[in-house]
Structure formats: C-alpha cells, structure tokens
Amino acid sequence: MSALAVAAGAVAVFAAGAHAQGPPAPVLNALQVRDLVENADPAAHARLEMHFATLANQYVIEAARQAAVRAALAGNPNRRMGPDSHAARLARNNARTAATLRQLAAHHARLAGGHASRPPIDAERFEDGDGATQPTPGELTALTAGRRPRYERRTVRQYFLTLARTYDAGVQTHRAMASAYRGMANHRGGNNLPHCERLIRELSDAAQQARAAATAYE
Q1: Domain coordinates in residue numbering, the chain
Q2: For the chain, which ranges sit under pLDDT 70?
Q3: Closest residue by Cα to residue 68 from 19, 1, 2, 9
C-alpha cells in the first residue's frame, strides 16, 4: 500500500472519530460568540460548549490532514521531510489548538452546570471570536436592529473594533511589502507596488469605516 493511501486512510479515521458523536453543531459566528460570552447564563455556556467542541473537531481533522500530507511526502524518495517540516509544524499546532478548545468546551460545560471553573490558557482569543465564522450582513442586521440590551451593543462595538484592528494589521503588512518592493534592485517586483499601495488605501478606508461604525454602539 502506498504512503499516499495510508495517509488518506489516516484522515478518514481521524475524521470519523471526530464526528463519532453525531453531526456537529454549527460553528457560531464571531458576534454570536461574543454575545454569548457577555450573556454568560447557563444556556449561553451550553451553546458555547457545543461551539468550541465543534471547533476542536475541525482542528483534529486538520491536524490529521497535515500529518497525512507529511506521511505522503515522506514516502517520496525525492523529498526529505524532517520533524520540523511545514506540514509537521502545522499538524502539531492544530493538535495543540484542538486540545485547548476541548478544555474550553469542558470549561463552559462546567459553567453551564453551575460549577466553578477556570478557563484554559489562551481561552480569551477564542472567546473573542477566533476560529468563528464572520457574521453575514443579515446576521449583523438582526443583532443590531431596534433597541438592544447594552451588553449586545458592547458586543457589536467590539466586533467592529476588532475588525478595524484586523484591517490595521493588513495595512502594516502591505506597507512592509511595499517598502521591500521599493528597495529591490533594478526595480524587480515593481509591478506589485501599485497593488500594495491600492490595498493600503482600501484597508485604511475599511478600518476607518469600522471604527466609525463602532461609535454608533458606544
């Protein structure tokens, strides 16, 4: 049996194990996660438990996929795959993330049951929406329509501020890339400079708009 076939089988086994408990609950969007974290009642904790458990399963499957890629490439005599290969690092990182998310799911399960619990290390970024989907325009409208409780307004405001910071990070990345293109000898890569400059303008505008939207929910 080829290494590729073995690798494909490994992904199937890991995927089957991850879903052995039946169809997973859908992953929440980032606004819903923050909304439930702010709400913090037993029902909210129960839903967060399902969300983080589902995310953990996704990372398990991705870790298995990366391990399978490494196994397949390791079977190729023309490639040398060490323990610190890109695929191996991704597999380890995804496995660690899955473990954190399982601990976070268990944390919210305890809170849902009315028990004291301490969150795992690195829980904050996932409770802030990391790994969650982005809300659709319809979902965003539904959450912001009409008079809403103050904690929901804080949730929406935080969403827009986080979005603005994401755009800011993109601006910094493309500024660094633009600087590198300008410094290239003989202007190699110069054709990419206008692209970077356009993205800098667009991302800067998007960050400004996101911050303006956040002010409506202060």
Answers
A1: 1-132, 135-218
A2: 1-25, 73-86, 143-152, 184-191
A3: 9
What is the rounded distance in angstroms from the CA atom of residue 207 to the CA atom of residue 203?
Answer: 6
Residues in the chain: 218
Q: Determine what percent of the chain falls in helix, strand and coil, rounding each to the nearest 5.
A: 75, 0, 25
Question: What interhelical angle do 86-112 and 42-74 show, nearest 10?
Answer: 160
Angle at 46 between CA 44 and CA 49, to 5 degrees: 110
Residue indicated by tokens 């206008």: 194
What is the C-alpha separation between 48 and 80, in angstroms, rounded? 42
Cβ neighbour number for residue 70 with a 10 Å cutoff: 22
Write the DSSP symbol of residue 113.
Answer: T
pTM over 0.70: no
Encode pLDDT of 6-22 as tens digits.
333 433 433 444 444 45
133 — phi, psi (to 5°)? -75, 165
